[in-house]
Amino acid sequence: MGYRFSREDVDYLAGAAGQAALAEVARLDLTEASLLRDLGRVRGEYGDRAGVLVETVRLRRRAGAKLVGVGEWLFTDDALQQATPTAVARHRSRRLAGRFVHDVTCSIGAELVALHDVCPGVIGSDLDEVRLAMAAHNLSGTRNVLLAKADALVPCSTDTVVIADPARRADGRRTHDPAKLQPPLPDLIAAYRGRELVVKCAPGLDFDSFVTGGTGRVGKQAGHPDLTWEGEAEVVSLDGSVREVCLWPAALAEPGVTRRATVLSGSGDSWTVTDADPDDIPTRAPGDWIVDPDGAVVRAGLVRHYAAAQGLWQLDPRIAYLTGDSPPPGVRTFRVRDRLPFREKTLRAELHRRDCGPLEILARGVDINPDALRSRLKPRGVVPHTLVVTRIGETPTIFVCDTP
């Protein structure tokens, strides 16, 4: 659950005494091994303030892996968990450059920082007074951002693009049910009907069941037959990890695009593929390489479009693994050394012949447990290998590959 911050805590941390105390506490290790000892030391120096000081320093250290330039920021544990990574927020802000934007679930302000650099005016609102106070501290000195306490389901701005990031937990558990988000997705859509609304959602959301892309096709979300979204679903990954699905209204989507995969990296590189791109790929025997597409491409259903752009083809039309004669950059690729039928005795003998040691097993389209299979194969050598276990047609197939 983390420490429960109060408004008084925020006022103390934002003041001169709190900032000086945080600087002192930041000198401590605060690791799992030293935490009890360090906490006792802080309690002896700062009394009842010890909990809030230690929690804030530890949250700031965690934030550094996700957010840029937030060394003096204030967080709650939940707010940091849901905060949009800086690279993802900056990507979204580029699509909104020049617009007036209202973030109706602004929390501690992570999205607002990216927006204020490219938008002439930004509003951030939230019902949580503690998070709003933290946002005010985090954005101090920023001139074109207005903060206000407001219910996300009660519109309080006009002529703005509205951004919402509903909380993805219900009853303490992560949920992919759009009606159990906070605020619920159907209620958000109803509240801003006729407005340009952008919604950030968890990557597990079943958007295919209700995103229509303005085609007139009515999605049927299980349990929510009236839930529809006309526009674009953009799946975004960062450094190989799928971070979110962003729903864009038709007015802010590229004409003809209903699905987009955007692949970002911490180095600043990025690329995108959409369902408006060509998806004609050849039917050929497996090439020299197996390609595991980025998760955003797979989640967006754009495997064929990506393959066409990279000169690749599929091992099987129903499987996301791709193959080709040269590896594309920026994704996991495996050089094929052999192709075997799925017979464990034959595979064990081949791996022994190759002096196989460390063994990675990837599987799609077959019902196997990689850990259990590895245990049965008993690799005892020194040469690393990767097995790609899949099916071509109805035939389970194993590709013995070099480990990248």
Give an overview in words:
28% of the residues lie in helices and 25% in strands. The protein has 3 domains: 7-63; 81-269, 3-Layer(aba) Sandwich (Rossmann fold), CATH 3.40.50; 313-402, no CATH class. Strands 3-2-1-4-7-9-8-10-11 form a 9-stranded mixed β-sheet, with helices on both faces. The chain has a 7-stranded mixed β-sheet with strand order 13-14-12-15-18-17-16, with helices on one face. It contains 13 helices and 18 strands. The longest helix is centred in the first third of the chain and has 14 residues, at 50-63. Helix 7 (110-116) links the parallel strand 1 and strand 2 (121-126). Helix 6 (86-95) packs across helix 7 (110-116). It has 404 residues and is an alpha/beta fold.
